[in-house]
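Record passed on here:
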Amino acid sequence: MLNKMPLPSVGQLWRDLQKKLDESDINPAPREGKMILAHALGCQIEDLLLCEDAFVTNDVYRQTQSLLKRRQTKEPLGYVLGRAPFWKQDWIVRSGVLIPRPDSEILIAEVLKEREKNLSILEVGTGSGALLASILQERPTWYGTGLENNPIARACSEENLSSYIPRTRFNLLDSIDDLEQTPLSFSIIFTNPPYISEEEFENLDECVKDHEPKSALTGEKDNPTGLTYYTDWIPRLKNMLVPHGLLAMEIGHTQAAEVQNLFLLNGFSQIVIIEDIAGRPRVVKGYNIR
């Protein structure tokens, strides 16, 4: 009778997971093995060191191998784990919902430079809800409205927002068209619009191109240059801003001059281009002149 292979320790297993990920054609992050194991154990990554020599159970081992196989198919880690880190915590994500990126934290930081109390803010394209929820956590007197026409993403937004923000402090709607029928106006509007051109989309990593929603990347309209939604949204969003209200938009790193010009043509002032840590343009913001 053959002896069963002994189960690995926590330390052995995370190193084995990372080795197999590194050998796969997926360009994994350095801590993905630990993230998979911590998820299976239901603990934080930092806790793994405390039990490095303990042996894992059969259930934990089987779960890590199942998650590993999914990741090796180039499924994004956020979908594999059902959560993704953003700003100061992890958020629920699922297939059909754009995974929040660290680049969007620059957009959050710019919005949070506004410190006035009791502001009403709007996010266009709420996605997972991670951006809007992060801002509302930081500004407990603000009220947030989110627009999201993807029902899968809107349900995810509702789940994330409801987990951390009182339901009396936010509202979710389907589209800009819904708002244009109301007299609402906002002190701050922010958005990460679909800015990937069709050509750029074809060259994206397979983890993104084959798994994340194309509608959140290139949009549902013809978007050959990636500028379609800036051209359409900037004049419409201006009409929803209070006098001297802030509009902040994430951009692709080649789009700064064109988006800045659209802000100027639509009567915004104090227009600023904010760069990311690599020195690439990432956000354009300006204030509404009426």
Remarks:
- DSSP finds 13 helices and nine strands in the chain.
- The longest helix spans residues 58-72.
- The mean pLDDT is 94.
- The radius of gyration is 21 Å.
